[in-house]
Amino acid sequence: MIVAQTPAPGLSASKQPDPSDEENTSWSYAGQWFFFALTALVIYILALRRRGR
User: Fold this and answer.
1) pLDDT of residue 1
2) What SS3 class is residue 53?
3) Can you tell me the distance from the alpha carbon of 5 to that of 48, in angstroms, rounded to the nearest whole number?
4) How far is CA 53 from CA 20, 37, 44, 48, in A?
5) What is the pLDDT of residues 1-53, one digit of tens each?
6) DSSP-derived 3-state class of residue 1
7) DSSP 2-52
8) By CB distance 3.0 to 4.6 Å, which of 7, 16, 24, 50 could disulfide with 11?
């Protein structure tokens, strides 16, 4: 995020961004992709079983 040090004429200064305000969603993304991989694996196994018949 880019924040100007001094505000433009007629505008008030913005609050400096604080990294601690951002959520840490890395575990959510990891869980989401493991779920996708598990779903793909189940579909693959079902496809192999159907092909073997």
Assistant:
1) 64
2) coil
3) 61
4) 55, 25, 15, 9
5) 677 778 888 888 877 778 888 888 889 999 999 999 999 999 999 999 999 87
6) coil
7) ---SSPPTT-PPPPPP-GGGS---HHHHHHHHHHHHHHHHHHHHHHHHHHH
8) 7
Buried b / exposed e across 4-15, counting CB within 10 Å, b at 16+?
Answer: eeeeeeeeeeee
Between the CA of residue 2 and those of 17, 18, 20, 28, what are the distances in Å?
A: 9, 12, 17, 27
Total number of residues shown for the chain: 53
| Lookup: tokens for 47 | 């496809």
